[in-house]
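note to self — DONT lose this again. spent like an hour looking for the file last time. sequence + predicted structure for the chain T wanted, 324 res
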Amino acid sequence: MVSSTEPRLFCVPPPPADDESAPRWNPPDGAPPGPWTIETAYRFCERMATTHYENFPVASRFLPSHLRPNVMAIYAFARTADDFADEPRYENRRVESLDRWEQLLELCYHRDVAHPVFLALRDTVRRHNIPISPLKALLTAFRMDLTKKRYATFAELRHYCLHSSHPVGQLVLYIHGHQEPELHRASDEICAALQVANFLQDLSVDTPRGRCYLPEEDLVHFCVSREDLLAGHHTRSFKELMAYSVARCRSMFLRGRPLIRKVEPGLSMELEATWRGGMAILQRIEDLDYEVLNFRPTLEKKDMAGIAIRSLFSFGRRFIRGEV
């Protein structure tokens, strides 16, 4: 029986107390053994969130202070799993690491796990009654990364985003108490746009690794060959393909933008900064005349500061107009 104070989050019965999957210290990410408290676990997640480069702010000061640690806990979970799928140091043990990560995820929904990420994550999901499905969907996406290197159509790429990026926005909305379907749909558009923008940004990194997130149908339509991509040839056809891809991604951002005005002020400013960060990456790609096969465009600190200021001014205008 579930106690009245324990949220009904996970329908699978807990493993036996003596099960061999019970916590033992062999974390796939190599986290130190502690001892950990909730406070130190959240600080561990915060360090991870502040030391990784991202195109968007992770739990910025726009968010209420009591929610920032929860966002950082989810970020630490996803960031680590993403590293399992991508980082060279996990070569030859990627599947094993993701499997162990999922095992720890399931355990943390039933009991404390002596790992900083999962101690913080357990506290987060219990505070906000977050189901396990979006977290497991993220792990599905990272497993897809291990085997699927190409996408035939843009619809197929969006199906990947269903697992890789949609859950991120859903989790943020859950933390803020939003379960409205229309808000989740708008969030899906923004999150998928961020994912696609990241694919366009990372062509110089992904192509040598044998990954191509430019759909096959687009390559054929614009007459761009894989040989051109691998050789880093910025042909006219390639630039036309990139212009089309950037425009399509920008339209996704625009479809999701209404979400910014439908949530509370702190989250609204956070979403606007995130939205502007993604749009800024697209603008940077355009400014480079789409020559991104040999160079990864990034946002500098001054760009991030400008995004934050513009987001604040935009919020101020909405506040003055009584839209907040």
